[in-house]
Design goal:
Layout: H1 2-14, E1 19-22, E2 36-40, E3 45-47, H2 49-56, H3 63-70, H4 85-95, H5 98-103, H6 110-118, H7 120-130, H8 152-161, H9 165-172, H10 174-183, E4 209-212, H11 216-228, E5 231-238, E6 248-256, E7 259-264, H12 278-289, E8 295-298, H13 301-310, E9 320-321, H14 322-329, H15 338-346, H16 353-357, H17 371-397, H18 400-423, E10 425-426, H19 429-454, H20 463-473, H21 491-498, H22 502-521, E11 534-535, E12 538-540, E13 550-552, H23 564-570, E14 579-586, H24 589-598, H25 601-608, H26 613-622, H27 631-645, H28 650-657, H29 661-674, H30 676-692, E15 694-696, E16 702-704, H31 713-750, E17 754-760, E18 763-769, H32 773-785, E19 796-801, H33 804-807
Helix pairs in contact: 3-4, 3-7, 8-9, 9-10, 11-12, 13-18, 14-17, 14-18, 15-17, 18-31, 19-22, 21-22, 24-25, 24-30, 24-31, 26-27, 26-29, 27-28, 28-29, 29-30, 30-31, 31-32
Amino acid sequence: ADDVIGTLALQAAAQGFDVLISTGDKDMSQLVNERITLVNTMTGSRYDRAGVKTKFDVYPEQIVDYLALVGDTSDNIPGIPKVGPKTAAKWLGEYGTLDKLVENAAAITGKVGENLRAGMKELELSRKLATLETNVKLDQPFESLRVGEPDREKLKEIFTRFEFRALLKQFVGADAADAAQTAATPSAAPSDSPASEAVTPVVAPVPRTYETVLTTEALDAWVAKLKTADVISLNLSTTSGSYMQADIVGIAVSVEPGKVAYIPVSHDFPGAPTQLSRDTVLQALRPVLEAERPLKVGHDLKFKAHVLKRAGIELRGEQFDIMLESYVLNSTATKHELPAIARKYLGIDPIAYESVAGKGAKQIEFSQVSLDIATNFAAEETDLALQLHDLLWPRLESLPQVQELYNTIEQPLVPVLTRMEQTGVLLDGDLLRKQSNELATRMREIETQAYAAAGGPFSLESPKQLQEVLFNKLGLPVIRKTPTGQPSTAEDVLEELAVSYELPKLIMDYRGFAKLKSTYTDKLPLQINRSTQRVHTCYQQAIAATGRLSSADPNLQNIPIRTPEGRRIRQAFIAPPGWCIVAADYSQIELRIMAHLSGDEGLLKAFSEDRDIHLATAAEVFGMTLDTVTADQRRTAKMINFGLIYGMSAFGLASRLGIERSVAARYVDLYFQRYPGVRRYMDETRQLAHERGYVETVFGRRLYLNDINSRNAGLRQGAERAAINAPMQGTAADIIKRAMIEVDRWLYESKLQARLLLQVHDELVFEVRREHAEDLIAHVRELMSGAAKLRVPLKVDAGIGENWDQAH
């Protein structure tokens, strides 16, 4: 088998293919050359010529001699006794080949020299055993080893029998699939994993020609190609992964798979060749990059737009972001970084950045990477992006609703988020530092109180000491144990104990203040950009399975608002002089979406009449008039309303409300009696999820549920809860994204002195000239409430303030 692999690898390399051999066998290292690379998928290691030298301290052409000396018991290669890898590498480094070593064997001193001379009779046998035969006569020529056409009739039979509906439509056509499904007997999906996507085809390898562009003639030739192309793939090598700091090191472009140009502009390692200046390259590329055509393909085009903006280029035509294409096809199937997508859809393990630049403290900047290695790395990413687009886009076209979601929501949102991130938000660092000192004082006060309650000092941040104090010294009841059998001090445990005991309540308060201090009041002032004096978050589109945006570096979506101390942090988010902050958020949007999806008459009526939905629910559940509902009853109804859309059970409701489970179960039954449409929707949604393996938002976003048919009851029930909530949370995410696109368009067209700063789930935060605030609110309310046409009106609350806390 090794000989066949070697023969095929050399044949493929001779025809211009780049070859990847997936193996953990060191014998294969002898095949490595400029076209052949090894990858060990068990460890993630990748070995080109330099990689082999790093691992074995000999070059690929010395591997056979190396193995002949060291031996290999698994392949019955005797080797020389007592000669290990270091000795073999040392000898080959000094003498070059085994033959030269044998010629100079008399000069090798010591016991190891004696062993070498004694074992020389076996060396030729060892070398023969270590050498792969790469001229095996094969019964098929290399060119014939390609994936053939699928047997559609056989596939139709298999996919019909197992009810793989999506696969059936993709492989045999929608009409045939519908006919086959009609004839088939409905049944639940038979496996733990739904047939959420078509199987990944084996893609024929693409011959590669990666060019390093160092002359104006070569650059001009590539620019001419780019100008006449319909679609180009674009990639940037940069100095940093932070969009506010990254500068361009090189630019890679491609117009067809396998052919890529890498244009270095600032590689400055010792001995680096002369490169075209950054200004020269950008001016030559400007007409292409700033034009709507050709359309651009890339991974995370938002980052590329940021970096080009810093360099004075406005990227346009960024139509095909493979990160987002992968995300809308199946948000839960894989991570959406380029390496993960390439492995999933192309079966290719791309060159790892760490193998190019090193890792940890030894990692070098990309500008220090040699041009041949940098070209291969940057060009491969560019090449794979184009290949992935060619594979993923037809899949989107086969799912019109999903393609519409990409074309009308996810892709148009990219430039909106780019502008928001560039703008940033003004922060009062002095106020945060003052709050940090106040939190530190409050934490010291709690420490003193805790010592008194515990009868002596201990570390409040040590779970082990806390266990000792709570359960051994004070004898509090053990609510739950850790996997190692120790009493748990987790937050939910402390929350339950805090109802009856002082110390757990103090510990919870301490932890809450400590988190606010370390995460926000200490850290946020350090994240203020020196150039803009603002904080610039990064909105990630391809993280949350439901379609929600997430915020990172820093995360501005999780600032707590339920405590006074948490809300005070928002006071540090301020407007410049003469401006103010406006916050606009959807009121109870997920409950409104539930009313729309379920069609329940009671919910529809309550929202259409703009009633207090929690008050209305309390009146229905408890059989009372609106004016006689108590505050506790409204709180209970609110917990039921939100609990049920998150799939909360009667047990969970009882725990949250601190009531008996039987009482909570009665409340749930009463709720469903009053709102029968909600129960019907939940039952139908669960059933549909079991059958299809996914649920959908109003706008066609598919939310796959990998565990919906799991044999593990806990996983299955968790997926069922997600099936209920995901359409609501996902639809809410779609709606506010649509609103952001419309608001951004209106701001641009109106020229109003206002900027969209933040999105926090159901809320948008703006910075606006004070005299235009009311005008902004009027238009934003209209655009947000009109972002979707549901059976109930979308209600938008808005406020104005000197800071975010006042406006919210």
